[in-house]
Automatic annotation (TrEMBL):
Domain of life per record: Bacteria
Organism: Sphingobacterium siyangense
Protein name: Peptide-binding protein
Length: 796
């Protein structure tokens, strides 16, 4: 094949010197200086491919020298294949910034796997001891909270033992701190107690400081939740206790004796394994400010691994949300403009993956894979000093006569016009439970687009306050959420802004007299559209306490429906809610809320609603009795019932067939979540629910829930086989013996007669009772077995 020199009149490649110059049609397009780093390099080298540096520090010094000259070329720092164990974070300051036309690029060599590790390799000589436990000396003064062997995460000695099938915590026990168990611990100092909040609103972590007598421990910590409570009486476990080292893959570090203990699998010699102990909390730090930002840097193709857990440092309250945070991550971005982290992997991290802190503009987090994370994935958090009249606890408020009533932020020290898009995020919150796939607090006009988020202990996307709105949250696929906590949603928000008062009567009076207060913080409208949400343990979309100034449309809600607790100026339209509906809670008299032209499959589940906003009408129902219930409340005058003839419900396409009505408009239901080919091949999809409609009453209908298969008792033969006095109840046909229903005591052949006080005559009654009591983590069921009734408590 011939290429005309007229097309490419000047091409100059000098690979060994690291310089590329490109000219097209006689126009100089600029040269690129390439600086190479290798695990086999030396900082005395020249930084070329043939003579690479050993460290990023040497490469960055070279960049600084290049910046001092005239006609600075574009610069690329290229990591060659290998694992780089860092002894300190790589700091990118304003002085090495690129330009819009020629950003500084830091990347992996094409086709190479490059790992930036915060871990330290341990050179251990193991000796076998008693009871299958081996021991080895570690350098004195070295401590660590997590440990890997041949890239496999090991378990710190704990009670109860680790079980990947159990949530929360992969195992919990009410007697984790019982006097009888504590009495068996000789010296538990340094042990850790992990527990859920009493209301299951996140978690707590405590360090054991010693023993008080023979059977009680002393604790410090518990600052990880901004809604203080006692630890949950059941959902708790302890770790880092020597006496609990009793099963394979567990380890314990005695810091005082500098001895590491480990119980490998039978027949495994740990001397043949490679051990890594995470040490650093942060691997790359973009360090700038609003007056001197670091700008125009792109980081791509790297793998970030093995940062240290930070759960004991999570203590800073975030306004009046339920969160406390620690401003750190494997990547921390502060004082940056027009910087991008693209197509990187964040795996096996102890704390947050990415923390976008305080002043940032035009930062993009794009196309990354984030999984196996101890805390949160992507955090955008501003400075409380930028907030006017801030308060930091739910029950606190600033009196009106002391309140700053100027609209908007006080300073510019917060993220604005930043983006998190096309990221695959799953299996996060492995240690900390008050986390999210994307967390937003004290920020403005963020774009959260096309992310796939699942297997999270709490929300997939969380907006912690109303400051300062303007976000676009769209095309995301968020499911398997609120798996270890409660009273939350796949999307969750709070809006405890300046108008908020913990006394509802006081707040009614304040907002009635001063309605201008409502949007002082939530200045811009946040739009939530074209997402797919699924939460089986809460709401799909949960706008909680005071969340205001939202527009919500074109969302597919697969399980938990949509909740609007007290707040103002929410416009909700053209959403589809499968097997659920609308949950309005304790609305203000003049909320100005609108809920119209949505498809709902239940009557509105209102709680203490006296005033129905600006409009709750024109919604589409699948059943007449649901519409009748709502009309009896004085709403839905123009609501209507149609046959919900969906295009392909088994495959998640809930568009209406042959629909030409202009009030409700079909929207795309097939292209949620990540877009890049690499991430789409890795991403999971939500389970598509079976439709719960009146057809469930028909003979032969079956319903899969949790690990069981259920159907109505419908025939004399089924009544006789169960020994029932009449044809009623729901029969359990199949049951997975590894699931929680079986572990809770249910058995095939059981007939469910009552669920949380709700009488169960048919399958639809059970389905509706489960939806009604979705937040019950230990529901009580009355069953019929062996011709007698029996009550069980389910552990869901």
């Amino acid at each position: 094949m011939k290429i005309s020199c007229m097309l490419f009149p000047k091409l100059l490649f000098i690979g060994l010197t690291g310089v590329t110059s490109l000219s097209v049609h006689g126009q100089q397009a600029g040269s690129v200086k390439r600086i190479y780093i290798s695990t086999k390099g030396s900082d005395r080298n020249q930084g070329t491919m043939a003579s690479p540096y050993a460290t990023a520090e040497a490469a960055l010094r070279s960049v600084e020298k290049q910046k001092q000259g005239k006609n600075t070329p574009g610069i690329e720092i290229i990591f060659m294949a290998g694992t780089y164990q860092l002894d300190k974070p790589i700091e990118l300051s304003a002085g090495i910034s690129g330009t819009r036309r020629q950003p500084l690029r830091i990347k992996a060599e094409d086709g190479a796997q490059v790992t930036l590790s915060g871990g330290k390799s341990l050179n251990l000589k193991w000796k076998q001891g008693d009871h299958g436990i081996w021991e080895a000396k570690v350098p004195r003064g070295l401590n660590f909270q997590s440990l890997y062997a041949n890239d496999k995460h090991l378990v710190r000695a704990r009670y109860p033992n680790y079980d990947p099938t159990v949530l929360p915590f992969q195992g919990y026990a009410a007697d984790a701190l019982s006097p009888e168990r504590v009495a068996t611990w000789k010296n538990p100092k340094g042990g850790i107690v992990h527990a859920l909040h009493a209301g299951r609103w996140g978690g707590f972590h405590y360090k054991i400081t010693g023993k008080d007598g023979l059977s009680t421990v002393t604790l410090e910590g518990g600052q990880q939740n901004n809604r203080p409570s006692k630890m949950h009486e059941t959902y708790r476990f302890v770790e880092n206790i020597f006496e609990e080292l009793d099963t394979f893959q567990e380890w314990y570090l005695d810091e005082e004796k500098a001895l590491l203990y480990y119980m490998p699998a039978k027949g495994v010699d740990p001397n043949q394994l490679k051990f890594v102990a995470p040490q650093l909390e942060n691997l790359i730090y973009l360090s700038g400010s609003s007056s001197r930002p670091v700008h125009d840097i792109e980081v791509s193709g790297l793998r970030f691994m093995y940062t240290a857990p930070t759960f004991m440092k999570t203590s800073e309250p975030l306004l009046r949300s339920d969160w406390t945070i620690y401003r750190q991550g494997a990547v921390k971005i502060e004082g940056a403009e027009n910087c991008i982290f693209r197509a990187n992997d964040f795996i096996a991290l102890g704390g947050n993956a990415i923390f976008v802190n305080n002043y940032n503009r035009g930062v993009k987090i794009e196309g990354n894979r984030i999984e196996q994370i101890g805390a949160g994935a992507i955090n955008f958090v501003g400075d409380p000093a930028a907030v006017r009249s801030p308060e930091f606890r739910y029950e606190k408020f600033v009196p009106f006569d002391q309140m700053d009533t100027i609209k908007g932020p006080k300073t510019d020290n917060y993220p604005m016009d930043c983006e998190a898009s096309d990221n695959l995020i799953h299996n996060i919150g492995l240690i900390e439970k008050q986390v999210a796939g994307v967390q937003v607090s004290m920020a403005e006009s963020l774009r959260i687009l096309h992310n796939t988020i699942y297997n999270v202990p709490r929300a997939g996307i969380n907006v912690g306050d109303g400051t300062w709105g303007g976000h676009e949250i769209a095309y995301n696929d968020v499911f398997n959420t609120v798996l270890e906590t409660s009273d939350h949603g796949a999307f969750n928000s709070w809006g405890r802004d300046r108008f908020w008062h913990p006394n509802r009567k006081e707040m009614d009076e304040l907002t009635g007299k001063h309605p201008n207060l409502i949007l002082l913080d939530a200045v811009k409208t946040t739009k939530i559209h074209d997402n797919r949400f699924r939460c089986d343990h809460g709401w799909d979309i949960d706008l909680d306490d005071g969340s205001s100034n939202y527009e919500i449309y074109n969302n597919l809600c697969l399980s938990g429906g949509l909740k609007l607790r007290e707040g103002f100026y929410r416009k909700v339209y053209n959403n589809v809610m499968i097997n659920n509906g609308f949950h309005p809670h304790v609305w203000f008299q003049n909320s100005h809320d609108v809920f119209r032209n949505n498809i709902v499959m239940e009557s509105h589940q209102d709680i203490q609603v006296k005033y129905w906003g600006e409009e709750v009408d024109h919604n589409i129902y699948g059943r007449q009795d649901d519409l009748d219930k709502d009309r009896a409340k004085g709403i839905e005058k123009h609501g209507r019932v149609i046959q919900l003839n969906f295009t392909n419900p088994a495959h998640g396409d809930f568009r209406l067939k042959n629909w030409k009505d202009q009030d409700f408009k079909n929207f795309d239901m097939l292209h949620f979540g990540v877009m890049s080919k690499r991430l789409k091949s890795l991403a999971a999809s939500p389970e598509i629910p079976q439709l719960i409609q009146s057809e469930a009453k028909e003979q032969g209908s079956r319903w899969a829930w949790k690990s069981g298969l259920f159907k109505s008792v419908e025939t004399l033969g089924e009544q006789s086989a169960a020994g029932l006095p009449s044809i009623n109840g729901v029969l359990l046909l199949q049951l997975d013996e590894k699931g929680n229903l079986y572990k809770s005591g249910l058995r095939v052949g059981d007939v469910v007669l009552n669920y949380q006080g709700e009488k169960i005559d048919q399958l639809i009654d059970l389905q509706q009772a489960i939806k009604k009591h979705v937040h019950a983590d230990q529901p009580k069921v009355l069953i019929f077995r062996n011709q007698q009734q029996q009550e069980l408590t389910l552990q869901l």
